[in-house]
Design goal:
Length: 273
């Protein structure tokens, strides 16, 4: 058994040595791709070849026509061509490999950027989910691995024909956040956010509404707390957001109030106890 293992090790060393001896530097200095492995490359210094390996999850970018660039990039950014072999994955926590961008297995709107085994958490904007193939945040209903209800916080669009005069498009208030709202398009819910300084006001008709000033929306007057809304509305940030109405990263309002629950005729009177 020991003899067989020794032969295997010797064979591997012989193959590696042959590969090193067989490669001849085209020039005195340069960096050249390995003919089989995408994460390996040759470093030539004074016409002496040294076999190098990129970090686990990186591949050698051989796009420099002069072969003067030593660049290991994320595997998904490199055109490996026929160089199909890679080193086995080395998992580390949330990282499938030591380097790379990986989807979270539990939440489809979360992904991890890994560098040398250290994972940094990122989350898509409301209503979006991380697409594993495109490696960008897309609408949740366009991501096969994601259930739209998960990103929409359990919100489900009304059934077809349930809301009159809205067709396949309707808007609905978020149950907890005055600034957020849902748009239903062909039965798919997408979460949006009003521009900073405004909140969502439910319209007169079912499935309608617009972003308005907080003072004009009962129950949401104090959503932004002590923030100076006049200054915010004049800022370049708000000017940029006004054009889209999309939810962007914004400072969290202090002591923001949740959206008041819809009133009900049969609801019990509040107790003073």
């Amino acid at each position: 058994m020991k003899t067989f293992a020794s032969l295997l090790v010797l064979s591997a060393l012989t193959t590696a040595a042959y590969g090193q001896e067989n490669f001849k530097c085209p020039d005195d200095f340069g960096f050249y791709p390995h003919h089989i492995s995408c994460d390996k490359y040759w470093k030539c210094d004074n016409n002496a070849a040294e076999l190098k390996t990129c970090g686990n999850g990186l591949a050698f970018d051989a796009s420099d026509p002069k072969f003067l660039t030593e660049n290991c990039d994320y595997i998904h950014n490199v055109d490996c061509g026929d160089r199909s072999q890679l080193e086995p994955p080395i998992p580390a926590g949330k990282c499938d490999r030591l380097y790379g961008v990986f989807a979270d297995e539990a939440k489809c709107d979360v992904f991890w950027n890994c560098w040398n085994g250290e994972a940094s958490r990122y989350q898509c904007s409301p209503g979006l989910a991380y697409d594993r193939e495109a490696r960008v945040c897309m609408w949740a209903d366009q991501v096969p691995e994601c259930k739209n209800e998960e990103v929409a916080g359990g919100f489900s669009c009304p059934a077809a024909g349930e809301i009159a005069n809205t067709g396949s498009f309707s808007r609905h208030a978020h149950p907890e956040d005055c600034r957020k709202y849902y748009i239903c398009l062909e039965g798919q819910a997408r979460e949006y956010g009003c521009p900073i300084g405004t909140v969502f006001k439910i319209g007169d008709g079912d499935g309608t509404g617009n972003c308005e000033d907080p003072e004009d929306v009962p129950g949401c007057e104090d959503y932004y707390g002590d923030l100076d809304l006049k200054s915010i509305r004049k800022s370049e940030l708000l000017a940029g957001l006004q054009s889209t109405g999309a939810s962007r990263a914004a400072p969290a309002p202090k002591n923001q109030k949740p959206r008041p629950a819809p009133s009900s005729r049969n609801a019990p009177e509040p107790s003073n106890n």
